[in-house]
Specification:
CATH topology of the largest domain: Methylamine Dehydrogenase, Chain H
Structural class: alpha+beta
CATH class of the largest domain: Mainly Beta
Pfam families: BTB, WD40_RLD
Number of strands: 28
Strand content: 25-35%
Protein name: RCC1 and BTB domain-containing protein 1-like isoform X6
Distance between the termini: 49 Å
Number of helices: 14
Largest sheet: 5 strands, antiparallel
Strand order of the largest sheet: 4-3-2-1-25
CATH superfamily of the largest domain: Regulator of chromosome condensation 1/beta-lactamase-inhibitor protein II
Helix content: 10-25%
CATH architecture of the largest domain: 7 Propeller
Keywords: Repeat
């Protein structure tokens, strides 16, 4: 669980008010402003209110949360902030709102007047659905549902990507090298911009004095420039710090480049890097390059933590306000490096945190949030813990499922509450309603047990190969959230060794979206995949189909 109380501002709120929070963000040059959204989709702000960044209609600071009625019920999907600060907010309906500092037209309304209240940004965005926003110091980016990027605001270094250095007063589509391409993620440094495409390519533009664009030099780029050094890698996530950048690939590999004054690249030194460098790679750690800051771990213990070769990185974190970097591994380990409470940590340091957000709450300067934070609460977990305890408990169960000669003990009431399929099944006119044992033969025991356990715990713990079967069950039972979890497990668990097995299973279960994901992974890593045992054990017809399809995608071109 994320503890919002780790940010000092939120100690101003009572426990009841904190329990209502669903999303929150702490921002500002001194982390003195906050915005939060309740479970009822009401938006509140409080804090210092520099440059009218609270959007309350006045310039008064407030220690008591004020409601932004204009945004009530809008359902926030993305939020970002600048250094002024200015604030951008995208809603579930695709609308874009902005307020706060506007000295460089970073609000996108064509003026330089301060935005004392949220305004709808619409110029050049008609019929566009905004899905993600990102702010630099004084410039803004917005990503649309069809993969287009729009930019506006301060442009002294080309960070708007227009090909010039004049400020951009309204949203302008970023084209040039991005023309005809589909962008799936955006990020901003102080005066630089980054975009990652659906095929894993990364582009950068704007200020490059520290090499934060990763293009091999330190010259500013007035239009998007591809990071040639990452060619052949498929990037899933990008993150930008004040003047450094991070990238995470589909194989869980982490690359860093740009400014390194505080060790924020994690390379073991403080030298800037003009091109991406692979970090947290065992082969690159030399003698003496072991994290020791504030730690009493022995070298052996540190080695054990770092030698988990299968423990891939699944999340990276950085923020344009700080020189701090963080990442999280698949097993839940959280590392931090860079400027951490005044110390320069030059190698990733294993923490006891459970999420990257805690790194920024406790060690970043200022202690802002690197993303819009989503909350969970103890009062919900109490019920979940009780249900978890009673799953497959013969003492309290009133129903058994039989699979492969094994029983799974459950409770009809829980199944009816949690699943529409069982709610329909346990009707008086269904024969199953009268049974004490129900035979299941269309799914395997591990898959069905995992499904029932999900109904009790909201969690799924399966290897990616079995998650394919669970995806098939979730589709049959119309369990959409479970389907998303299964796809998440499979995508995070895909490797060169199991990629073709997962592709085969996706085809067998007619999981089209997953089949496309696995196919793209196989194509992106074609040489390695074709050398695995799984590739040579497949059905001949499927092999022919794969070769034909890969050929049509240009996989065999020189």
């Amino acid at each position: 669980m994320v503890d919002v109380g780790k940010w000092p501002l939120f100690t101003l709120l009572g426990a009841q008010e904190v329990s209502r929070i669903r999303q929150a963000c702490v921002f500002g040059t001194s982390a003195n402003e906050a915005i939060y959204i309740t479970q009822d989709d009401e938006v509140f702000v409080f804090g210092l209110n520099c440059s009218n960044c609270l959007g309350t209609g006045d310039s008064q600071s407030t220690m008591v949360p004020k409601k932004l009625d204009f945004l009530r019920g809008k359902k926030v999907v993305s939020l970002s902030y600048g250094s002024g600060p200015h604030v951008l907010l995208a809603t579930e309906g695709g609308e874009l709102f902005a307020w706060g500092h506007n000295g460089y037209s970073q609000l996108g309304n064509g003026t330089t007047n301060q935005g004392v209240s949220p305004i709808l940004v619409s110029t050049n965005l008609q019929n566009k659905k905004i899905t993600q926003v990102a702010c630099g110091s004084h410039h803004s980016l917005a990503l649309t549902h069809d993969g287009e990027v729009f930019a506006w605001g301060y442009n002294n270094c080309g960070q708007v990507g227009s090909g010039a250095t004049a400020n951009q007063p309204t949203p302008r589509r970023v084209t040039n090298c991005l023309q005809g391409k589909v962008v799936m993620g955006i990020a901003c440094g102080q005066t630089s911009s980054m975009a990652v495409l659906d095929n894993g390519e990364v582009f950068g533009w704007g200020y490059n004095g520290n090499g934060q664009l990763g293009v091999g030099n330190n010259g500013n780029q007035l239009t998007p420039c591809r990071l040639a050094a990452l060619q052949g890698l498929c990037v899933l996530q990008i993150a930008s710090g004040y003047a450094h950048s991070l990238a995470l690939t589909d194989e869980g590999l982490l690359y860093a480049w740009g400014a390194n004054t505080y060790g924020q690249l994690g390379t073991g030194n403080k030298s800037n890097q003009l091109s991406p460098v692979h970090i947290m790679a065992e082969k690159e750690r030399g003698e003496g390059e072991w994290p020791a800051v504030g730690s009493k771990r022995t070298r052996e213990n540190t080695e054990e933590a770092w030698h988990r070769e299968t423990d891939r990185i699944v999340e990276i974190a950085a923020c344009h306000s700080t020189h701090t970097s963080a990442c999280k591994t698949q097993s839940g380990q959280v590392y931090m490096w860079g400027q951490c409470r005044g110390q320069s940590i030059v190698l990733p340091h294993l923490t006891h945190f459970s999420c990257t957000d805690d790194v920024f709450a406790c060690f970043a300067t200022p202690s802002v949030m690197w993303r819009l934070l989503s909350m969970e609460h103890d009062d919900f977990l109490t019920v979940a813990q009780s249900l978890r305890k009673e799953f497959d408990s013969p003492e309290t169960a009133d129903l058994k499922f039989s699979l492969d000669g094994k029983y799974i003990h459950v409770h009809k009431a829980v199944l009816k509450i949690r699943c529409e399929h069982f709610r329909s099944m346990f009707q008086s006119h269904w024969t199953e309603d009268m049974k004490e044992v129900i035979e299941i033969d269309q799914f395997s025991y591990p898959v069905y047990r995992s499904f029932l356990e999900f109904l009790y715990t909201d969690n799924v713990d399966l290897p990616p190969e079995d998650a394919i079967g669970l995806l098939d069950l979730a589709t049959s039972y119309c369990e959409n959230r479970l389907k998303r979890l299964c796809q998440h497990i499979i995508k995070r668990g895909i490797t060169v060794e199991n990629a073709f097995s997962l592709l085969s299973a996706a085809v067998r279960y007619d999981a089209e979206d997953l089949e496309e994901f696995c196919f793209k992974f196989c194509v992106n890593h074609l040489t390695e995949v074709t050398q695995t045992a799984a590739f040579w054990q497949i059905d001949g017809n499927m092999l022919k189909e794969f070769i034909c399809r890969a050929s049509r995608c240009g996989a065999f071109k020189n």
